[in-house]
Amino acid sequence: MKKSRATAKSTLSNPVVSGSKDSRVIKVIDRKPRAAPPLTISRPEMLVDGSDRAFRSLVHGLFAFLARHEAVRAGHGARIGLVGIEYTVLISIGHLGVHESDVSVNRIAEHLYLSGAFVTTITNKLLQRRLIHKTPDPNDRRRVRLEISEKGWALLAELAPVQRQVNNVQFDCLSAAEFKQLSKMIDRLIDSSDRALRLQAYFEDKPGGPAPERAESTRKERSSAPA
Questions:
Q1: Each residue of 65-115: pLDDT tens digit?
Q2: DSSP state of 141
Q3: Which of 74, 141, 207, 211 could cross-link 84 (Cys pair, CB 3.0–4.6 Å)?
Q4: Residue 34: how many CA atoms within 13 Å on its side-chain side?
């Protein structure tokens, strides 16, 4: 036993000891240093002491927030008998209609960052439930105008008291200044995410293409080059 203990001490820095007081056994655990995973971002602004751990925490936090916000949206819709996206399209038609004279499928698609075909499918479902009206555009017969019906407004009015309380709680952590700043940041993140998706599509088409860093620098060089 003395020999085995001496051997263990000479080969291990952190042996784990277990057992009774009368018979103690040394369990040898080989704790080799683990290689650091590859960086998922290389922008210096996103790295802390060369690590992307804070960036990963941000991304996972966004996942967590979006999952909870999606659940809130689904709850709003369920309260008036709609699924989440139906509720979102319905309330978007209503709010845009108050401030804009002409609300079309394309306008809703632009507002919600969705495809026109998908919005058409959702608006047809709302039309079947008589929650909206579709009327031909007098200036362009290929387009239709969208308006909420009285039944649709009644559902939104029924939802509003609970909706306000839930939204108040969800965003009670933001000050007025933080709300404005976050709104601007979200717009910028949507734009940069669109560019990221185009870059990702580029790599899908050309798997043997340049490294991401080189592709990004090439894009900047081309954008700054004289026409």
A1: 999 999 999 999 999 999 999 999 999 999 999 888 789 999 999 999 999
A2: E
A3: 74
A4: 3
Q: Taking Cα atoms as reference points, which of 172, 134, 133 lies closest to residue 151?
A: 133
Architecture of the 69-160 domain: Orthogonal Bundle (1.10)
In terms of pTM, does the model score above 0.85?
Answer: no
The DSSP result for 17-55, as a single string, is EEE-SSSEEEEP---PPPPPPPPS---GGG-BTTB-HHH
* 55: amino acid identity, one letter: F
CA atoms within 13 A on the CB side of 77: 18
CB of 56 closer than 8 Å to CB of 38:
no
Which residues are CB-contacts of 70 (< 8 A; sequence separation ≥ 6)? 84
Burial of 132 (0-12, 13-18, 19+ CB in 10 A): buried
Q: In the chain, what is the straight-line distance between the N-terminal and C-terminal CA atoms, in Å? A: 81
Say which DSSP state 17 is in.
E
Q: Are 15 and 28 in contact (CB under 8 A)?
A: yes
